[in-house]
Write a structure and sequence with these properties.
single chain, Jelly Rolls, six-stranded mixed beta sheet, 12 helices, elongated, NGX6/PGAP6/MYMK, TMM8A factor, membrane
């Protein structure tokens, strides 16, 4: 045999602390057919700075779809069936880099996904630029060993082969046809070269993580051994590996035989299905009412003609896949949403999810039983949603399992007429829904009974759109798209349905009131600015107060939300007003000439607007204008002090009662904003920031000019009368 090794690599990604699925870094690989060995090379590294500490990285693996993980231990939706993912931990302690290998023998072909993340996030809000987080990097590479000429085992044809040694197992493959109800594998004529007892182990199927359903058959002696499989995967290659358990130098010759039991489906004729499809598409067009009516009648008669269907082992119901959007699909039954279900053979619906872009959402299947259609009161309609192949023996096993996978069971009856199933991140494959009627005392009791079940099936990015306390986000890794929920207001879980740490309505209203009404502390600063004739500064403070109030009213999670305009616009205006308020306050304290002050006002505002457009959350967008304004203020104060030959400001009362309290409040506000805010205390620490900044502005504004009386602008309205006054009369009066 000829083996070929292949290597696949993806660029390293910076890991994040986990708070929702978007923090997990996803790697997407494709394993080719006939792969006999898969090796993952996992490389983790961290920075060398003092802020870097020991860290544990969790890596999850899954075949067919992204892994469903739950590092926070939150709840899933009520109707979701979750199976834990396969994961390993990589520890970065004293070593800067860690290299780990993971081997998978006979892996399943197709898509494989790896998700890596750091432990739970601390919840602290870090201002960009104040702290330098430690970079933790992760890279996954894939090595595969592929057999180029794997022998093909033809159904019904015995094939002799030889296992050279235990170190070189034999690999063969057989193609499973569509509608295969069962498979039987036989191993016979087992002989060894050293005339000892024959001992071999046969492994059927491939490894799929997180769960593997490989079948292992151990054969000893010359007697024939066989294995029967129910519902093997349709239209796929099935790998078979034969290993010798004998001595190292002895070869083993065996003869293998694979046979299939094929189920003959029964359904409405393809011509009637085609007419029904045309009818559903033409029903909305004007002028086609007559054709639509006749087509509906023809399609409606198809399910009634069941004499030929009852003799088959399954009943196919035609289903149309309708793509709506990214990771959004609706399945429409041509013969109507109501499906006839009987006890003689299962009713089968095909849900196509094999495009490679459907595994990033949630598959939702809902069943509704028409109680009036069931003649037996205690009868139950059981169903099974499975991938790769359907379950065709619901009346016997009821365990909803196929040869190499475990399905998801469903059940409706007159007591429970409605049921829903949510499959999170369904694997890329053909999915099947099998339905069958079960009678309480056996199948002979209801040979002619029939139940009507309404089936709704669709693929959605996020179940229930993450509810009122979550936001559905579409994530991308290279060309692959998948969706996840980002929860708010203390809610958690996969679909934001876990209310363990949820905020009450009263807490949400309190948070909104604190963050919005705390901006009213700008009113004293506005009043002081107007009283001291700083009208431009007062306008800036009014702008900041208005947009900060409504930005935080729109930024709140939960129900206490009010947005007067687009969220992005409100956020930009809030950030702009905050930085410009600091800019104009410090320049006002500098006491430069008015023309120069207003020029600096305009130029600084334009530059701040540009920098915020580049990066709103960068610390230098606030610190840069502040430091530059402080340099201007210090230079102006030095100039004034040199000119007057004493300290400026000269009054000790100005320093003690205004400047020092204002500077203290400003430093406390910056400390709270940069180092104390977390997700839990944000609503009151940020409210304290509002109050402290507004109060510091009121203290730091300089007094008005001595030659200008308060509200002096109102007296200028009488300037015409003063111009007409005769000054000479006053001179004559003196003499």
């Amino acid at each position: 045999s000829l083996y070929v090794s292949e290597y696949f690599s993806q660029s390293a990604q910076k890991l994040s602390f986990y708070s929702w699925y978007g923090n997990a870094k996803l790697f997407h690989f494709h394993v080719p057919e006939d792969t006999v060995l898969l090796r993952w090379l996992l490389q983790a590294s961290r920075g060398k700075g003092p802020e870097c500490t020991s860290m544990e990285i969790t890596v999850h693996f899954r075949h067919g779809a992204p892994p469903v993980i739950n590092p926070l231990g939150t709840a899933f939706p009520a109707n979701a069936t979750v199976r834990p993912s396969y994961n390993i931990s990589i520890t970065l302690s004293s070593a800067v880099q860690n290299t780990t290998f993971v081997n998978v023998t006979t892996p399943a072909a197709g898509d494989w996904f790896i998700a890596a993340h750091l432990p739970e996030a601390a919840g602290r809000i870090e201002v960009k630029g104040f702290s330098t987080p430690c970079p933790y990097m992760f890279q996954a590479d894939m090595f595969v060993l592929r057999l180029t000429d794997m022998p093909v085992l033809e159904p019904g044809v015995p094939m002799p082969h030889t296992v050279v040694s235990p170190a070189k197992p034999l690999h063969v493959k057989v193609f499973v046809p569509k509608h295969a109800a069962g498979m039987r594998f036989q191993l016979r004529s087992c002989l060894t070269s050293d005339q000892k007892a024959c001992a071999v182990r046969v492994v059927l199927g491939s490894i799929t993580l997180p769960q593997s359903f490989q079948k292992i058959l151990t054969c000893t002696g010359s007697a024939n051994c066989s294995l029967a499989l129910d519902s093997p995967p349709w239209e796929k290659w099935l790998q078979i590996m034969v290993e010798s358990l004998g001595t190292a130098n002895a070869s083993v010759s065996v003869e293998m035989l694979a046979s299939f039991t094929v189920c003959r489906p029964g359904s409405a004729s393809s011509f009637l299905n085609f007419i029904s499809l045309n009818q559903s598409q033409a029903g909305a067009r004007p002028g086609n009412t007559g054709a639509a009516g006749s087509s509906a009648q023809a399609a409606g008669e198809a399910p009634r003609n069941t004499s030929g269907q009852r003799s088959s082992c399954l009943q196919n119901q035609p289903v149309v896949r309708e793509d709506l959007d990214v990771v959004s699909v609706r399945y429409r039954l041509l013969n109507g949403p109501s499906v006839p279900v009987n006890s003689l053979s299962p009713t089968l619906l095909l849900l196509n999810l094999n495009t490679g872009m459907d595994s990033g959402g949630s598959l939702v299947v809902s069943l509704l039983l028409n109680k009036t259609s069931v003649s037996l009161a205690n009868a139950t309609v059981v169903g099974c949603v499975s991938a790769a192949s359907p379950v065709l023996s619901l009346n016997a096993t009821r365990n909803c399992s196929t040869a190499f996978s475990q399905g998801y069971p469903l059940s409706v009856s007159t007591a429970t007429a409605e049921v829903m199933l949510i499959v999170l991140y369904p694997q890329t494959d053909d999915w099947f829904l099998s339905l069958q009627l079960l009678c309480p005392k056996g199948q002979g009791e209801c040979p002619t009974a029939e139940a009507k079940v309404t089936v709704f099936a669709y693929l959605t990015p996020c179940f229930n759109d993450c509810g009122p306390y979550g936001q559905c986000s579409l994530l991308r890794r290279h060309g692959y798209l998948y969706a996840a929920c980002s929860c708010k207001a203390g809610w958690g879980g996969w679909s934001c349905t876990d209310d363990t740490k949820a905020q009450s309505i009263g807490a949400q209203n309190l948070a909104t009131l604190l963050l919005t009404l705390s901006n009213l502390m700008f009113l004293p600063a506005i009043a002081v600015a107007v009283y001291r004739y700083y009208l431009v500064e007062a306008s800036v403070y009014t702008y900041t107060m208005f947009f900060s109030t409504f930005y935080h009213a729109c930024d709140q999670p939960g129900v206490a939300v009010m947005c007067i305009m687009d969220y992005d616009t409100l956020q930009y205006c809030d950030f702009l007003g905050s930085v410009v308020s600091i800019w104009v306050t410090i320049l006002c304290m500098a006491r430069v000439k008015k023309i120069l002050k207003y020029i600096l006002f305009i130029l600084g505002t334009l530059l701040i607007a540009m920098s915020l457009q580049l990066d709103r959350r960068g610390v230098w967008n606030m610190m840069g204008p502040c430091l530059f304004a402080l340099v201007i203020m210090i230079a102006a104060w030095v100039h004034h002090g040199t000119k007057r030959r004493h300290c400026y400001p000269s009054s000790w009362k100005r320093w003690v009662f205004y400047l020092l309290p204002g500077i203290t409040l400003a430093f406390i506000a910056i400390s709270v904003y940069a180092f104390m805010e977390t997700n839990e205390n944000y609503y009151y620490t940020h409210s304290i920031w509002h109050v402290l900044v507004a109060c510091s502005v009121a203290f730091l504004l300089p007094p008005r000019d001595k030659h200008k009386k308060p509200w002096a602008w109102s007296k200028k309205l009488t300037c015409r009368y003063q111009i007409c006054q005769n000054d000479r009369e006053e001179l004559y009066a003196v003499t």
